[in-house]
Write a structure and sequence with these properties.
The chain is an alpha/beta fold. The chain has helices at 3-12, 20-31, 46-57, 74-87, 102-112, 121-129, 146-151, 155-164, 204-209, 234-244, 256-268, 282-293, 327-334, 358-361, 369-372, 378-386, 418-427, 455-462, and strands at residues 36-39, 67-70, 93-96, 116-119, 140-143, 170-175, 196-199, 221-227, 249-252, 273-276, 299-302, 317-320, 344-350, 373-375, 403-408, 436-441, 446-451, 466-467, 470-471, 474-476. It has three domains: 3-207, Rossmann fold (3-Layer(aba) Sandwich); 212-386, Rossmann fold (3-Layer(aba) Sandwich), CATH 3.40.50; 403-476, RRM (RNA recognition motif) domain (Alpha-Beta Plaits, 2-Layer Sandwich). 35% of the residues lie in helices and 18% in strands. Strand 12 (317-320), helix 13 (327-334) and strand 13 (344-350) form a beta-alpha-beta unit.
């Protein structure tokens, strides 16, 4: 891959320059034969740090799996797979994870013939056990969010995976912390002096200019405290979201039940939200993330499951409905906003019986602890024209998202392409190309984001219509 091809791939992602960590990681992976450990805070672009050089190392002319990327969960597998596809490198890839049958994935593997597979440790071992993946062609193994994999108890699965990959030439580990790295003993994951460390955890420039996960000293994240007059913070949350308008916000809570309760409250009052937690079915979680990432929901209500493995660039606000349980949780929550060159805000909702322990959240040596958190004048903002939180969903002042998501009941198996969908929605639905946003075509169905003000018109126009000569279901994803 020459510099011109690299620049083209970066442009497709809207990135014009690699940061210092990414540049060093690329040079080390391409210029050396050692195993590599990349340590860099959340939000610094570690996915691209390994993907860009990996694309250059893999033989695009071969139909064999040459690289496995191990991730702790399905969301990161799907997201990383999407990033690679977005590069337009010509490589084929696939994500593999639990929640669906291995047989179904095997069928896709045979059809797709990927050179790169993103997967969870257990599912990758399962495919190797069944012979669905040939181990002797795999030259590269990447373990992303290595600290999270250890935290989730995947050490044995990862060890077993590496023990059977006898043809592996390079190992690349990426982590946002050093947690657990020195305690993995003599397993195949043991990191010794032969490994090259690309360590940016303590680089001040990286922390200030690239890392959005630290709130102390960050020039890109504004930090606010919002005092709640009652223990139940729902009304305060609603007023805060009302003051933020159409901006994209994630509301973090510590418990699944709380996510359901808060999401129901906000929906009842007219907000367009997505709920996300580990207790949802796989399809529900994917739908929730899709609606939020394509602009069809302004609020993602979530547990800390959404604090890692997501790379949605346009998240304006992080709201801590429940205060983070520790500093690590805070780091990963706030790391969802102000990514790359963007700015962001984070809000702590503080109840009458809660205290915000600044010392656990900020580097006191920076001298910024007392000044970092500002009081958010919610009452003043609301009195200045925003009004008060409504008790029902019949008011017109609830901010609505710019987009809405359509479900189309045909997909790749029906020979449906993105171009077919655009043509259908323009010719039959009455839209212009500018009113159509992100389109994702799956095997049996497709999602498409359209301008929300045109939603009802489109649904009326396409009722009973055909796409590529086939009648299909077209409905809103709520």
């Amino acid at each position: 891959m020459n510099a011109m091809n690299l620049n083209k791939m970066m442009e497709k992602l809207g990135i014009w320059e690699l940061n210092d960590m990414q540049q060093e990681a690329r040079q080390v992976i391409l210029g050396k034969r050692n195993d590599v450990l990349i340590l860099s805070p959340t939000g610094t672009g570690k996915t691209l740090a390994y993907l860009l050089p990996l694309v250059q190392l893999i033989d695009a002319g071969s139909d064999k799996v040459q690289a496995l990327v191990v991730v702790p969960g399905r969301e990161l597998a799907l997201q990383s797979d999407t990033v690679l596809k977005s590069l337009g490198s010509g490589l084929r890839s696939q994500s593999c994870y639990g929640g669906r049958t291995a047989m179904e994935e095997h069928r896709v593997l045979r059809q797709n013939r990927p050179q790169v597979i993103f997967g969870t440790p257990g599912r990758l071992n399962d495919h190797l056990d069944k012979g669905n993946i040939e181990a002797h062609h795999i030259k590269y193994i990447v373990i992303d969010e290595f600290d999270k994999c250890l935290e989730m108890g995947f050490l044995d699965e990862m060890t077993r995976l590496l023990e059977r990959l006898t043809a592996v030439e390079r190992r690349i580990l990426l982590s946002a912390t050093e947690k657990g790295i020195d305690g993995i003993g003599h397993s195949p994951l043991h990191i010794d002096h032969s490994w090259i460390r690309v360590d940016y955890l303590d680089h001040e420039d990286m922390m200030n200019n690239v890392n959005r996960s630290t709130v102390d000293g960050s020039k890109r994240v504004e930090v606010y405290r919002v005092d709640c007059p009652q223990r139940d913070k729902l009304d305060t949350l609603g007023s805060l979201l009302l003051s933020l308008g159409q901006q994209q916000s994630i509301v973090f809570l510590n418990y699944r039940e709380s996510v359901e309760r808060v999401d129901a409250y906000l929906r009842d009052r007219g907000f367009v939200t997505s709920a996300f937690h580990g207790g949802l079915e796989q399809r529900q979680r994917e739908d929730a993330l899709y609606r939020f990432s394509n602009g069809s929901a302004t609020v993602l209500v979530s547990t800390d499951l959404a604090s890692r493995g997501l790379d949605i660039p346009q998240i304006d606000n992080i709201i801590h409905y429940h205060l983070p349980q520790n500093e690590e949780a805070l780091v990963h929550r706030v790391g969802r906003t102000a990514r790359w060159d963007a700015t962001g805000r984070t809000f702590f909702l503080v109840g009458p019986e809660e205290s915000l322990d600044y010392s656990s959240f900020f580097d006191e040596s920076s001298g910024a602890a007392d000044q970092a958190i500002e009081q958010y004048d919610l009452a003043g903002i609301m009195a200045d024209g925003q009004g008060s939180m409504p008790n029902g969903n019949k008011t017109a002042n609830i901010p609505q998202p710019r987009m809405a998501t359509l479900y189309i009941g045909k997909g790749k198996k029906d020979k449906l392409s993105k171009g077919d969908i655009v043509g259908f929605l323009c010719k039959t639905g009455g839209l212009t190309a500018e009113e159509i946003g992100r389109i994702d075509v799956k095997d049996r169905y497709a999602y498409v984001a359209i301008a929300r003000p045109r939603l009802q018109m489109v649904l009326r126009n396409v009722q009973g219509g055909k796409i590529k000569g086939l009648r299909t279901v077209v409905e809103q994803v709520r």
